[in-house]
Amino acid sequence: QFYFAYSGGGSVQPGRSLNLSCTADRFTLSRYAIAWFRQAPGKEREGISCINNAGDTTSYADSAKGRFIVSRDNARNTAYLQIESPNLDDTAVYYCIPLMQCDNFVSYGGGYWGRGTPVTVSS
């Protein structure tokens, strides 16, 4: 199992950018690619984005292109997800997941998700 500490979640107004972060607890983040997922109330979990271990290659789900930016700072053992212009449909619990690689990340079906961090978009 892997453990992350999240920050940046909470409430945000529509259209105001939001940055989420997850910091690895007791493991080295640079050994892994990091994928971001989310699950909205009553909906299926979906992949958003993935960044490779070195941070020089990114992948995005088609629906996420142009709306999210994934990044990482291995010196801080932290990965980030920027929601550029949140709308009401972005309300969800967001998760970061360590992977061996980003190929087919949207198909991840592992059983451990941790707590995630909730984001509520409202005015």
| Broad shape | globular
Structural class of the helix and strand makeup? Answer: mainly beta
Query: Uncertain spans, ≥5 residues at pLDDT below 50?
Result: none
Largest sheet: 6 strands, mixed
Radius of gyration: 13 Å
Write down the overall mean pLDDT.
95
Element order: H for helix, E for strand: EEEEEEEEEE
Q: Which bin fits the share of residues in helices?
A: under 10%
Number of strands: 10
Q: What count of helical segments does DSSP give?
A: 0
Distance linking N and C termini: 37 Å
β-strand percent reads over 45%
In order across it, which strands form the biggest sheet? 2-10-9-4-5-6
Tags for this model:
6-stranded mixed β-sheet, mainly beta, 4-stranded antiparallel β-sheet
Gist of the model:
The chain has 123 residues and is mainly β.
How would you describe this structure to a colleague?
This protein has strands at 3-7, 10-12, 18-25, 33-39, 46-51, 58-60, 68-73, 78-83, 92-99, 117-121. The mean pLDDT is 95. The N and C termini lie far apart (37 Å). The protein is globular, with a radius of gyration of 13 Å. The protein is mostly beta strands.
